[in-house]
Amino acid sequence: MTKATVFFGNSEAMRSLQKLLATCAVSDASVLLTGETGSGKEVMSRALHDQSPRRTAPFVPINCAAIPAALLESELFGYTKGAFTGAMSDRSGRIEMANGGTLFLDEIGDMPLELQAKLLRVLEERVVEPLGSGMTREINVRVVAATHRDLNALVRDGAFREDLYFRLNVLPLRIPPVRERSGDILSLCQWFAVKHARAQSPIHFTRRSAQWLEAYSWPGNVREISNLMMRFSVIYAAQIIDLSRVPAELLPPGLWEVVQRDCPDGADKTEARDEAQGPWKEQPQEAGSLSLQGGAEALADPISPRSIEQILRLSHSVSSLPSEGVPARKLMADIEIQLIKAALTQAEGSVSKAAQLLHLQRTTLIQKISRYNLNTSSL
Predict the structure, then answer these.
(1) Interhelix angle for 253-262 vs 207-215, to 10°?
(2) Residue 14: exposed, middle, or buried by beta-carbon count in 10 A (0-12, 13-18, 19+)?
(3) For the segment 335-363, what is each residue's pLDDT rounded down to a tens digit?
(4) Is the pLDDT of residue 209 over 70?
(5) DSSP string of 247-273?
(6) H and E: helices and strands count for the chain
(7) Residue 125: beta bridge partners?
(8) pLDDT-based confidence at 86, cuts 50/70/90?
(9) Is residue 273 domain-shared with residue 312, that is, in the same domain?
(10) CATH code of the domain covering residue 346
(11) Are residues 151 and 216 in the same domain?
């Protein structure tokens, strides 16, 4: 499977779009990419260029909404020395830089009307005139434009030239939002998890967390998925993530609501040890915390007198161990449970006060309570 296929996904909508993209790539006709913010329009435009006969020539992007109108003209068309105050030397514009290759005009719907007329001339006559030059230069550029706005509505309102719209909209390609291709969500998450992991192992998710990721509508589309996978890759590097244990401030509000609707009482306990496939794994272990093979159920009983005796004996000296060995992880986990119970009892059930008594962050204590399946209401 190619990198582009993994990135775009394998839903029916994206397979159809990729076929259409491959057909359009061999042409020199202008392409108009439409889609919501963050849906991957620039990536799609690069894919068009990379699959075209122009692939060895420059791909030059410019965001028409990110550059002030007063500067956009000089960025697009270039200028000669003395064309305006501060023009100390000749400079080629983006259109000329893309000669022989592809010019990507992102957010074309935000281009000022006066520049639209000049761009139309470039498309019709295949010449560019730098500011202050008075001379035209022939160019051979394929134009790919993109917008999240409704250009038809802008044309009706007089905010976008109809003739330019028809010039750009020769080959229209619509990129569907993520919510219309939910079958691609997990493959996109996996692709970005691997991308952002760099030299480390990528993050993974529990099976239930994968279901929550699929249930979320992702209003920020592919960009939002990328940003969240990068955030997790930094904070939970190489870990297996249970979204119900992630603090609310680290999740998009809509995703937090999805998790809370399905798991309102904290960390999910019903599927933590279900067999998982691909990137969706077993319940994560918190960095620096203790865990038992037997899971939370093995920790439900109070610490036994024999365990206390072993702990006290070992606390005096660790120069030797009994011949039968000691279950160190079990003993240390039992101690942690008893300390948490004691702190909660002393704090009269207040997690914040108990966290202070234990010198822990409140979120860390909440995660431990969930991990050990402690019923705080009975304390």
Answers:
(1) 130
(2) buried
(3) 888 888 888 888 888 888 888 888 887 77
(4) yes
(5) -GGGS-HHHHHHHHHH-TTSS--SSTT
(6) 16, 12
(7) none
(8) low
(9) no
(10) 1.10.10
(11) no
